Amino acid sequence: MLTVNAYAAPSATEPLVKTTIQRRDLGPKDVLIEIAYAGICHSDIHTVRGDWGPITYPQVVGHEIVGHVTEVGSDVTKHRVGDRVGVGCMVNSCGECEQCLAGQEQYCLEGNIQTYNGVDPADGTITQGGYAQAVVVDEGFVLRVPESLDIEKVAPLLCAGITTYSPLRRWNAGPGTKVAVVGMGGLGHMAVKIAVALGADVTVLSQTTAKREDSLRYGATAHYATNDAATFDELASTFDLIINTVSAKIDMGAYLGLLAVKGTLVNVGAPADPLEVPVFQLIMAGRSWAGSAIGGIAETQEMLDFCAEHGILPETELVSAEQINDAYERVLASDVRYRFVIDAKTFA
Ligand SMILES: [Zn+2]
Ligand SMILES: [Zn+2]
């Protein structure tokens, strides 16, 4: 086993602290990755603080991982030592169910194995994520990261990128479609950039107009404040697709009213409490309300290649390991444009 430095949450209420963890010995299909950068996702914070249910501590989170291959198992064929690679939100799945066979590992009928806070079927241990110096992952869940994408910024594509790319593709965002992005944060700013690159006409719906310049710079054609009731009148029945990235309670009736006939509102934000849906808003215009979770491995690779082709990167702020707890407070205060990335050298 390999001992590596990491930052772990000791409990739901204490700050993350420096520690060491064990990575398993390389199996024949495993890849050892020296981590270069790890993104901070809002899900990391929800998980360590127990917002989504009790977890086992200590827990190392982080599911936006980029680095280089330093060792490969005897049967590995997809990756070589020195390759620049990434790992996202899952590290394994059954590989045999109809979802896995269709390349939708995120919807594995046995449940995919999450990068952290999952149970590793190999040995029953709790998986530990990317706030660490290195990680061991089955080659099938390791992505190629194109060299043209700045390694210091690319990590958030592994969660925020694919989480928004997948529904935009599934619901055919492109030339001639009107897309609204609700929430201009880590997920939302990626949704804007990707939807624009797909050719859609993109509107940002943010709480205030504070981020309007950013929205327009990333290619949106409009930015509206949702704290202004006039927004909902002006934009009624406008959008073919709404991507809701907000993980808090919103007025579903108001947002569904912004959909055109047969439009779809997709939740990628995950509020802990149920949302109330006035069903008439769906029925009277044949609208749909849907959900979407990350994307399959093949689609994640497609997203990385798409972002390389279109020069799409997240907006990031680099922090050291010692700054993780401060960064968490700033994420909770929406004081980041738009994603923190940890320099893994500082775990040393
Ligand atoms: Zn995430
Ligand atoms: Zn499966």
From TrEMBL:
GO terms (molecular function) for this protein are: alcohol dehydrogenase (NADP+) activity; zinc ion binding
Q: Which residues form the Enoyl reductase (ER) domain?
A: 8-342
- Provide the catalytic activity annotation: a primary alcohol + NADP(+) = an aldehyde + NADPH + H(+)
Q: Report the EC code(s) recorded for this entry.
A: 1.1.1.2
- UniProt KW Repeat keyword: no
Q: Which UniProt keywords apply?
A: Metal-binding, Oxidoreductase, Zinc
Q: Does the keyword Oxidoreductase apply?
A: yes
Give the SMART domains listed for this entry: PKS_ER (SM00829)
**Cofactor(s) of this protein:** Zn(2+)
Superkingdom of the organism of origin? Bacteria
Family, per entry = Belongs to the zinc-containing alcohol dehydrogenase family.
Descriptive protein name: alcohol dehydrogenase (NADP(+))
Give the species this sequence originates from: Agrococcus jenensis
